[in-house]
Amino acid sequence: MKLGIERLLEEPALRKPLLGRRVALLAHPASVTRELTHSLDALAALPSLRLSAAFGPQHGLRGDKQYNMVESADFVDPLHRIPVFSLYGSVRRPTAAMMDTFDVLLVDLQDLGCRIYTFITTLRYVLEEAAKARKAVEGLTLRPGWESFVGAGALPMRHGLTMAELARWFVTTLRLDVEYEVIPMQGWQAEQAPGFGWPLYERSWVNPSPNAPNLWMARCYAGTVMLEGTTLSEGRGTTRPLELLGAPDLEVEALLKEMHALAPRWLAGCRLRSCWFEPTFNKHVGTLCAGLQVHVEDSAHYDHSGFRPWRLVALAFKALRRLRPDYPLWADFPYEYEFNRRPIDVINGSELLRTWVDDPHASPADLDVLAAADEADWQAQRQSVLLY
Questions:
Q1: What is the pLDDT of residues 357-375, one digit of tens each?
Q2: pLDDT, mean of residues 104-126
Q3: Cα 381 vs. chain centroid, distance in angstroms?
Q4: What is the predicted pLDDT for the residue at 137?
């Protein structure tokens, strides 16, 4: 397969619209070619291209910032001598002055397929600002009123779109008057084993954010990211972040038994393994935690169509609440600059998931009814923006 950035570098015809124009790049550490050359360096090496600026999303262009609400500053790239603007610093949207540094913005961002991944929100913001400036950009559903930096629009948690397809959706649904063009990938096989969208054994994995170290984490992320809104550790501070779930006082075997009793089909497509871990930072730092690891790397255990990470982690919450009704499950701290809402609600785009977990009379079937309606609606809605 070939990425859009590789086609742009290799095919002069695709670069013709850029000739004589100031070009900026929105990218992060995983914006690389197959040779692991960063897109910024590859573009700068083209003699016909006038590179004028770069932009970095959350965690920075260089990926040096570890956690949420840790901001990056603007700087001047020491090699290319161009300004690098942070879109996760003093501003989240590019300012008018930033927009004035380029004529065309190239977007080369890797996503994990989840609404909460903030690169999606940054994509929406640059499209909206480009529409205002009339510049070119190439490149359970959240409920009304719950928009945030981890909720850019009425998307389900696991949206099943590429970044380019998301951009098409934003342009359409927000009615943005913006010049927009996609350079599509070639040979991308979203349903082909063993990678199912990632060319396993053909491409090097570069972390798109600090705690996204591998494909297995990406498969789990639509569910395990909800742990960020709880007192349970998601494995930050270990070598397997967002594949783990645990706490010092967790009774793992009882939890697993209750999960199997409540909704065994929600455990399909993966293997859960009891484990112990001690985070070196973040929640429960320096404390031994009992927990679970979600294994999705072995084809003997992983079923791509059957694995449903959002339901899996929701089930863990429900089982824990049934076993220990008074367990202090929900975290209460600012999350992505939302100071007056619980993090779990910000993450899910409404109070519906938390309400279902806390309701002793609500069953997995009740959550299925809520989610299935949203999922069916989204499946129909996304058809018009699909590229692959």
A1: 999 999 999 999 898 888 8
A2: 89
A3: 20
A4: 32
Q: What percent of the chain has pLDDT over 70?
A: 97
Q: CA dihedral in degrees (64, 70, 76, 78; nearest 10)? A: -20
Residue 323 has pLDDT above 80, yes or no: yes
Which residues lie below 8 Å from residue 162, measured CB to CB, with a gap of 6+? Answer: 111, 387, 388
Q: Rounded distance, CA 183 to CA 170, Å?
A: 17
Cα–Cα dist 226/247, whole Å: 15
Distance CA 334, CA 27 (A): 27
Per-residue pLDDT, averaged over 30-34, amounts to 92
- Rounded CA gap, 107 and 90, in Å? 21
User: Looking at the chain, how many residues does it have?
Assistant: 388
Which pLDDT tens digit goes with each residue over 76-113?
999 999 999 999 988 999 988 888 888 889 999 988 88
In terms of Cα–Cα distance, which of 97, 357, 39 is closest to 226? 357
0.85 exceeded by pTM: no
HEC letters along the chain: CECHHHHHHHCHHHHHHHCCCEEEEEECCCCECCCCCEHHHHHHCCCCCEEEEEEECCCCCCCCCCCCCCCCCCEECCCCCCEEEECCCCCCCCCHHHHCCCCEEEEECCCCCECCCCHHHHHHHHHHHHHHHCCEEECCCCCCCCCECCECCCCCCECCCCHHHHHHHHHHHCCCCCEEECCCCECCCCCCCCCCCCCCCCCCCCCCCCCCCCHHHHHHHHHHHHHHHECCECCCCCCCCCCEEEECCCCHHHHHHHHHHHCHHHHCCCEEEEEEECCCCCCCCCCCEEEEEEECCCCCCCCCCCCCHHHHHHHHHHHHHHHCCCCCCECCCCECCECCCCHHHHHHCCCHHHHHHHCCCCCHHHHHHHHHHHHHHHHHHHHHHCCC
pLDDT given for residue 135 in this prediction: 46
The mean pLDDT value for 45-64 works out to 88
The CA-based angle 314-317-322, given to 5 degrees, is 125
The pLDDT confidence band at residue 242, using thresholds 50, 70 and 90, is very high
